[in-house]
Fold each of these.
Amino acid sequence: MEGYQGETVVEHSEPKEELAMYFISEYGHIDGSHHKQWVLDQVARILMGTPVIKKEATWNNGNVEIRYETADPSEEYLAWITDDIDNDEAIGIAP
């Protein structure tokens, strides 16, 4: 994108339930079962304690976009995904 300046990590205090709902509302409508599976995986990660990183993307024209992404998975999530889920099917593909 023209004038893109990059991303900066910013502090946040949103509760995990609010962040999980953000992922559902932002990405849950995208067609494709592999994309929907990714949304479910992100929600599971968040609800099982995986940290969420908040970033501000900025452009020269003053536009700012808030972006969220999950960090390295929590131990609770890793135990769950290993014990209960087929890894190839659980993670999905990001939209």
Amino acid sequence: MKTMLIDDSTIMRLMLKKLLRQHDLTDIEEAGNGLEGIEILKNKPVDLILLDLHMPDLDGLGVLRILKNDDNLKDIPVIIVSSESEKEKISEGMKLGAASYVRKPFRDEEFKNAVSQALHEMTSE
């Protein structure tokens, strides 16, 4: 199973990779901003996306809009992993089709639960 991390923080991507490996998810693509993430996704489809909302060039909500309007990318589950606390932005992300939201800083267990739930939903479809 291939996973994409889209986050402008190198340290956060390293932390997320470590946690993903605990779920035996080791085939991981990375992007440092939304534009880079979209370009990679067009050429290398993935099964799960972990997405930050606050990034340069193209923020997470912009990425979600592009994903959900692309027939080849719209069904990829997206977990928002962000420090965003504004309810309207979180709600918009969920309306745009995000599977779940994990607020930074998060507890490992909270993150693992979100990934487990997304993986379970993928395998039961």
Amino acid sequence: MSLRHRLKSMVEEIPPPVGRVVASIPFSLRFGTAYTSMAREVRTLEGAPTARVRDWAYPRLQKIVDHAFHHNVAYRTICQRHRFHPSHLATFAHWQDVPIIDKTILREFELEERSTPARGRLPINTGGTSGSPLAFYVDGQAFAREWAHMHHIWGRAGYHYRDLKLTMRARNIGERLLKYNAVHNEWIVNTYADREAVLGALARLVQRVDIGWIHGYPSIVAEIVTNLAAAEPATTARLRERIKGVLLGSEFTALHYVEPIRRVLGVDTTAWYGHSEMCVLAYEAGENRYVPMHTYGFVEALADGAGAQRLLSTSYWNTAAPFIRYDTGDRITADVENGVVPAFSVTSGRDGDFVLDRKGAPIALTALIFGRHHAAFGKIQHLQVRQSVPGAIELLIVPRDHGRSLDALMQWFDFSNVDIDVKPVLIDAPIRTAGGKIRLLVQ
């Protein structure tokens, strides 16, 4: 374990009275100039015209391409395959000549071949839940930049780092029901523990502290707050009086999760879109509309020739592992202005979130499930889809009322004019990944 991780683990075990003092230390002091300079850049470029964004991004794109070519074996090999040299990037218009990469291309090389020596670099893994894992490094300043951007996103909703959070993610904290973490001034909920015991612990916590925000996976937050409302109405009322908002990440913010959260707590939710590769980050500005933060990474919408667009992104900053014109695997719809994407919508996800009809044509689940705004969303807790053969899917449903029949539930779905057989299946709990997340498409 690195010194940084050892220190972080020690701080996470500090008891609440001392921890609250530690939590008051500004992030500018914790991370130094890497945080403050990035926060300043974010504020400067926020809402800027696309021409200005392009002019800001171009020299930084030039710099990372040149660095990767001259210091990274894999990237130089990829460029040579495409007969590309950094000197060809004479203007922003030549950006389209830079080779596109993806996980498959990167995995042709050993980890150290696709990595670059960098002081303080940190190992990261991604994609294990999608069946497409990739190991890589991030540079030593990556998390300072990450938090400069995340605090900006949360700050748009009114969050301040001194506000107390209640965090509901798939975090293993052993036998404890709740654990205080001074790093982010948060109480972490043990989402693996018995739900009745967790609700009791939450009731006691909310009565003695003022929770300002809830942060977590949409599916987990929705489940816990709706159960809390039913089991502990007085606690829910106190929470509702004091809470300022809900921060939702890591999963698609489906309406059947978001709506009960807003209804129970009476506050807005804030969501964002990102990847472990740390080359794209965007905040939600309306239902399935994301505004990319081009100070974090440069975002592109690449037409695939079939009427769709693919999301590409480039990290200007990660000198330890180049992600340049990296194909995320997500399909989007976006307008492009001055070569810059001001906003995008996700049509299907990196995990292959589409099914096949009887003719083998792909149908995006975002359209099939969420685009139709099924009335059933108000009557279910969780919904997932599984497909074994083209032309047929299983709807894996966790109902709110376990006494409700499948026939009664299916009356609230609309799959008309879709060339797919739909078989509903009642399950007691959603199927989660090893990391505790709920994927819409169960592989």
